[in-house]
Amino acid sequence: MVNLADLHASEGEDPTTLAEQATSLVDNGRWTLCNDGKGLERGFRFKTFKAAWDFMNTVAAECKKQKHHPEWTNVYNKTHIRWTTHNPLGLSSKDTAMARFCDDAGEQGGEVVVEGKGDWESGVETGRLEAGDCCSGGGNKGV
Ligand SMILES: C[C@H](O)[C@H](O)[C@H]1CNC2=NC(N)=NC(=O)C2=N1
């Protein structure tokens, strides 16, 4: 459950509603609340680079519609997405709506589900991998 106290809601949002939406994404899904409470993040894994890229294109088209944009990275067949609102700073209902959209797009785009949360480590953010590891070694652990 996402506690109100851990959530940094964007100004103008109803924190209670937002906490409910975030709780649903975290408890019934694969999202985690960022440590600063201002964002939701999760990784997506696909069979191929093309599938990952197609997924990103689908999300990008929705971003254009919603005028809301992700912080994301891609390494080979994986995409890591963080939804946070830059202005006003914090988590907003746009973020929770886009997170939901990504869940659906991932499912429809052939997402490869790996059990457990937080196992997506491309090395882009952790810096633990070396060049090439994304497709040969640790980056695909568990697939
Ligand atoms: C004018 C335009 O709607 C804003 O600049 C949008 C664009 N996309 C955005 N995306 C995100 N994630 N946060 C924002 O505050 C934001 N602002």
TrEMBL record:
Q: What is its EC number?
A: 4.2.1.96
- UniProt enzyme class: lyase
Q: Highest taxon of the source? A: Eukaryota
Q: Please write the reaction equations for the catalytic activity of this protein.
A: (4aS,6R)-4a-hydroxy-L-erythro-5,6,7,8-tetrahydrobiopterin = (6R)-L-erythro-6,7-dihydrobiopterin + H2O
Q: Which residues form a coiled coil?
A: none
Query: Span of the secretion signal?
Result: none
The family database entries (Pfam families) matched by this protein are listed as:
Pterin_4a
GO biological process terms on file:
tetrahydrobiopterin biosynthetic process
UniProt keywords (A-Z) are: Lyase
Q: Which GO terms describe its molecular function?
A: 4-alpha-hydroxytetrahydrobiopterin dehydratase activity
Say which family it is in. Answer: Belongs to the pterin-4-alpha-carbinolamine dehydratase family.
What name does UniProt use for this protein? 4a-hydroxytetrahydrobiopterin dehydratase
Q: Which organism is it from?
A: Extremus antarcticus
